[in-house]
Automatic annotation (TrEMBL):
It is an enzyme of class 1 (oxidoreductase). Residues 3-157 form the Ketopantoate reductase N-terminal domain. It comes from the Eukaryota. Its EC number is 1.1.1.169. This is 2-dehydropantoate 2-reductase.
Amino acid sequence: MEILIFGAGAIGAFYGSRLAINQNVNVSVVCRSSYQAVKANGFSIKSPLFGDYKWMPTRTFANSSDARRAGVKWDYVVVSTKALPDVSDDSELVEGLIGEETAVVLIQNGIGVEEPYAQRFPSAVILSAVTITSAAQPEPGFIQHHRFTRINSGAYPKDHEKATSKNSVFVDLLTKAGIDDASAYSAQKLQMLRWHKVAINAAFNPTSVLSYETDNPSMVQDADMYEHMKGVIEEVLEVAQKLTGSQLPKEFPTAAQILDNAKKSPKGSYPSMLADWRGQKKMELEVILNNPIQMARSKGLAVPRLQTMYALLRRAQATREQDFKSNL
Ligand SMILES: NC(=O)c1ccc[n+]([C@@H]2O[C@H](COP(=O)([O-])OP(=O)(O)OC[C@H]3O[C@@H](n4cnc5c(N)ncnc54)[C@H](OP(=O)(O)O)[C@@H]3O)[C@@H](O)[C@H]2O)c1
C-alpha cells in the first residue's frame, strides 16, 4: 500500500509515522520548509504515549511536482496542511496525484474544507477526518506529540460502498498502529463532529489571541471569559443542528463539559492559532469562523459572536501583515 502525506507537519508526520508501522505500507511525504531536514534525517518524534522514535519516510518530496514525477499509484493521499483557502487552494496542488483508486483523506480543522476536493475530483473517494490530537513541530523534522490520539473519519459528502471500505481500511491501519481511539463514522455523524470541533476551536483559538495570549486553563477559570466561550460553543452547535437537520449525538460533550474539562489542561497550554499568531503566520480564520458564518447566513441564521471575532481577527491579521511589510 502506498500512502502520501501532503503537508507533513505536526499532525501529518505524527499520523504518518504511526501508519508506517504497518507491514507492507509505504508512507511518503511532501514537505515544504522542513524538506532539507526531513530528507536528510527523517522525523524524530517525542510522544508521551509512544516514546521517542525516529521515522524515515519511504520517499520525501520537496513539492507536489516531484511527487507526481515519481509516478506512484497512491492508495491514500492524506492532506494535513493548514486549511487556508485565503492563501492557496491545496486541492489544485494535489492534482495529478489522485488516481482512480486514490482516496483523499483530509485531516484538517474547519468547516467546508472538503468541498474544493469534491469539486475537483468528483469520482474520487473523499474522506473527512477530525482529530483532537495535540502536537507541534517546534523545529524542522522534530514532532512533539503532547496528548490525545483520537481521530474519526467518514466519507464526504455521503456514504457509499467504496468510500466505506476505503475508510475502514484507513481506520484499521491506525488502530493496528496503536491509535486505539481511531474510529469510522458515518458521513452525517462526521460532519456533526466537524461542527463540534469547530465550536471548540472557535471558542478557544480566537479568544486566546484576542485576550492577549491567554492559556487554556486561565481562559476557562475567568468567569467573563467562560461565559463568552460557552456562548460561542452554544451558538455554533445550535446552528450546526439547524443546518444539518440532525441532533448532536448524546456522547458529544456539552459546552459546560468542554469548558470544565479544559480547567484540567496544563498551565501554559495554548490553542494552536496562538502559535500561528505569534509566528506571524496566517490563522485558519476562514474555515473556523467565516465558512460557518457564511453557511449560517445563507439560511438566515445569526451568529453574532462568530461574526464579531472574525471581524476583529481578520482586521488584526491584516494590520499585522501591513506593519510587517512596512518594517522590512
Ligand atoms: N497541531 C495540532 O495539535 C492540531 C490538532 C488538531 C487539528 N489540527 C489541524 O490539523 C491541520 C494541520 O495542522 P498542523 O498543526 O499539523 O500544521 P503544521 O504543523 O503547520 O503542518 C502543516 C504542514 O504542511 C506544510 N505545507 C503547507 N503547504 C504546503 C505545500 N504547498 N507543500 C508542502 N507542504 C506544505 C507546512 O509547511 P511549512 O512549514 O513550510 O508551512 C507544514 O509543515 C490544521 O487544519 C490544524 O488546525 C492540528
